[in-house]
Design brief:
Number of strands: 0
Order of helices and strands: HHHH
Strand content: under 5%
Helix content: over 70%
Structural class: mainly alpha
Number of helices: 4
Number of domains: 1
Radius of gyration: 19 Å
Shape: elongated
Distance between the termini: 19 Å
Length: about 100
């Protein structure tokens, strides 16, 4: 992590894991991907001669991609925490190993 990314991550991680998952996983990734999919999918289907109704496609896309966003957010949190802890040196690694590191964030 470079200094800028490091500082951004510290601010984001201070808000907690579930805030990160909700904001960046469910809302940003899930909502954005679901909205894009619900707009592109009917156009693609129309190109092959089928036009599904918009509302069911939109509802299923938003719900499905929001659930996927939980997994994406959790995976990103785990990955970024691992990178962050590697950059912190042996002190934070030791705290994580002995269980004195506060994982509630």
């Amino acid at each position: 992590m470079v200094k800028d990314q490091f500082e951004k991550w510290e601010k984001r991680r201070a808000k907690g894991k579930w805030n990160f998952i909700l904001v960046y996983g469910v809302l940003a990734w899930g909502g954005g991907t679901g909205a894009a999919f619900s707009l592109i999918f009917p156009l693609a289907m129309e190109a092959v001669g089928s036009r599904p109704p918009f509302l069911p496609v939109f509802a299923l896309s938003i719900v499905g991609f929001a659930l996927g966003g939980v997994a994406w957010g959790y995976g990103m949190w785990t990955y970024l925490e691992r990178v962050y802890r590697k950059t912190q040196g042996p002190e934070i690694k030791h705290k994580a190993e002995v269980g004195t590191l506060d994982d509630s964030v």
